[in-house]
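Dig into what follows:

_____
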Amino acid sequence: MQSARLGYGNKGKYREIEKAEGVAIDPDTHRLYVVSDKEARLYVFDIRE
C-alpha cells in the first residue's frame, strides 16, 4: 500500500489529517503517532483494545 487516508472523530464529526508525513507505533504504551507537516501538528492516539 502506497498511501492511506488517516482521520479521527472529534465531537461526532470525522476529520481527516491533511498530508500525514510520518506514522509510528509504540507497542509498549499502545500509542499511535502521526505527524502532519501541512498542519504542523503531532497527533497521538491511544490504540488499546
Notes: The radius of gyration is 11 Å. The CA atoms of residues 12 and 29 lie 26 Å apart.
